[in-house]
């Protein structure tokens, strides 16, 4: 049994995804090139970690990084409603230079 045998259809290849992440990072770099304070990027530790790390590595600016951990599953796979924050920010958010 292959690791990917359960996948019926690939919508985007890893190369297509990486190309788009690079485009987004380039746009962020252009948009915030003249901002005085380094922007703060906040990622969700369990949900978007790999996307987040790929993105911030490609941004060609000084930046700050922080993570939150949010969960909406109490046990097993049952959703308990609104997500709760189990790991909160350590850095201070600034309205004009923070990204989620």
Automatic annotation (TrEMBL):
It holds the Pfam family Pribosyltran. Gene3D superfamilies: 3.40.50.2020. GO terms for biological process: GMP salvage; guanine salvage; hypoxanthine metabolic process; IMP salvage. Keywords: Glycosyltransferase, Transferase. Residues 16-88 form the Phosphoribosyltransferase domain. GO terms for molecular function: hypoxanthine phosphoribosyltransferase activity; magnesium ion binding. GO terms for cellular component: cytosol. This is Hypoxanthine-guanine phosphoribosyltransferase isoform 2. The lineage of its organism: Eukaryota, Viridiplantae, Streptophyta, Embryophyta, Tracheophyta.
């Amino acid at each position: 049994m292959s690791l990917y045998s359960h996948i019926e259809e690939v919508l985007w290849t890893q190369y297509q995804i990486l190309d788009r992440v690079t485009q987004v990072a380039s746009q962020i770099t252009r948009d915030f090139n003249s901002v005085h304070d380094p922007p703060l990027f906040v990622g969700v530790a369990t949900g978007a970690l790999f996307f987040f790390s790929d993105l911030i590595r490609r941004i060609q600016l000084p930046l700050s990084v922080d993570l939150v951990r949010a969960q909406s599953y109490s046990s097993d796979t049952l959703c308990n409603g609104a997500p709760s924050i189990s790991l909160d920010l350590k850095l201070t958010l600034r309205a004009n230079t923070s990204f989620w």
